[in-house]
Amino acid sequence: MRTGPYDWRRMVLEVRSTELGLALDLTGEWRALSFAQIDAALAAVDLGGAGHIEITTERLAALDLTGAWRLRQFVLHARQMGAQVAFAGTPPDQLRLVEEVLSPLESAKAAPQAVHGGGPAGPLEAEVVTLAFIGRRTVTLWEDMIGALAFVGRLTATAAHLLPHPRGLRPISIARHVYDTGITAIPIVALIAFLISVIIAYMSAQQLRSFGAEIFVVDLVTIGVLRELGVLLTAIIVAGRSGSAFAAEIGSMKLNEEVDALQATGVDPVEALVLPRVLGLFISLPLLTVIADLIGLIGGAVLCAALLHMPLDQYVNRVSQAISPTTFWVGIIKAPVFAVLIAMAGTHRGMQVRGSSRELGRLTTMAVVQAIFLVILADALFAVLFMEIGV
Amino acid sequence: MISPVLEVRGLVNRFGTQVVHDGLDMEVHEDEVFGIVGGSGTGKSVLLRSVLGLQRPQAGTIRIEGHDITQLAGDALRAVKARYGVTFQQGALYSSLSLLQNVQLPMVEYLPVLSPSARDELAMLKIRLVGLPADAARKYPAELSGGMIKRAALARALALDPRLLFLDEPTSGLDPIGAAEFDELMLYLQKQLRLTVVMITHDLDSIFRTCNRVGVIVDHRMETDTLERIVDHPNPWIQAYFHGERASIHLGVTHGT
Question: What ipTM, to 2 d.p.?
Answer without folding.
Answer: 0.77
